[in-house]
Every structure is written in structure tokens, then in C-alpha cells.
Amino acid sequence: VPVKYRGVFGTISTMVRVQGPRNLYSGLVAGLQRQMNFASVRIGLYDSIKQFYTKGSNHVGIGSRLMAGCTNGAMAVALAQPTDVVKVRFQAQINAGANKRYHGTMDSYRTIAKEEGFRGLWKGTGPNITRNWHVNCTELVTYDLIKDALLKSSLMTDDLPCHFTSGFEAGFCTTVIASPR
């Protein structure tokens, strides 16, 4: 009987019932490595790259923000792609039983590099960068624009509630833009 998944919580409960709770965390180490690498570049370099595109000007236009979002998104994907490949491959073998190809995160890196060459760790980088341009630009640029609007209108000051509100609204915009992809 094929397993049916119904929504996020239905999928989680089905996975726990069929595969056990431990399998929810399959690929966690690679996922953490990916997100830490990805976020540090994507968020950490955004302002510096934005300043590069404005060439020292105090006025930051939408074009500079979009270019910065595209650039640092592509850089983050290029850096984090091997961890993405390992995470996806590791998760894909959940039902392999004793025939698992990968036995741990580091074994996954070694096996992929040995069998497919070092470049095998970067499979799918082009499509991942293309997808990430939309996500990264929408998230960082809308965050920037919303935060600037809140500060200029004096509705909020540059503190935690302003950042939370800007991030919440940017997350909404990003989901609306990225979902059809």
C-alpha cells in the first residue's frame, strides 16, 4: 500500500509512524553544515556586496539591492552545494535498509568524491543558484525595503521589534514569490 502524505503535519506523523522518529533527523549534520555556511555568506556579506554595487554612494537603489541579493545568493549556494548534495543523498536512502550506500555524513562526502569525482559534490549547482536568486533577492531586498520604510516613517526604531517585523513580512513575500518555483 503506497504511503500517503497529507500536509506538513501529516507527513511528519506518517514518517514517524512508518520509519520511526529518528529518521526525521536523517541528514541533520549535513543540513546544519549547509545552513551555517549558506547563512553566514548570504546574510554576512549582503551589506558589503550592496556597498560594492553602490560604489560608496549613500543612496542604495533597488538595482543595487537586487544585484547584491543575486551575487551573495549565488556565492552562498556555490559554497554550500556539497552539503546540500550530501544531505539530499543521505535522506534519499532512508528506506534502503542494510543496502545503504552512505554510512554517515563524512562517509557520504568521501563516497561521492571517490565515485563521481570532486565535481560530483557540486551537482545541481546551476539550478540551485537559479532558484536561490528568487528566494535571496526577495527575502533580503524586501527585508531591507520594509525596514527602511518603517524607520523613515518613524513607526519603529532600529531594534528587535523592527527587525522581527521586517523579517516576518520578508518571509511572507519570499514564500509568495518562491512557492511557484
TrEMBL record:
Which family does this protein fall into?
A: Belongs to the mitochondrial carrier (TC 2.A.29) family.
Q: Which organism is it from?
A: Hypophthalmichthys nobilis
Alphabetical list of Gene3D superfamilies matching this protein: Mitochondrial carrier domain
Q: Where in the cell is it found?
A: Membrane
PROSITE patterns linked to this entry = SOLCAR
According to the record, where are the Solcar repeats? 1-52, 60-149
Q: Which Pfam family, any one, appears in the UniProt record?
A: Mito_carr
Keywords (A to Z) from UniProt:
Membrane, Repeat, Transmembrane, Transmembrane helix, Transport
Instruction: Say yes or no: keyword Transferase present.
Output: no
Example of a GO biological process term:
transmembrane transport
In terms of InterPro entries, this protein maps to: MCP, MCP_dom_sf, MCP_transmembrane, Mito_Metabolite_Transporter
Q: Name one GO cellular component term.
A: membrane
Q: What is this protein called?
A: Mitochondrial uncoupling protein 2
Give the membrane topology, semicolon-separated if more than one: Multi-pass membrane protein
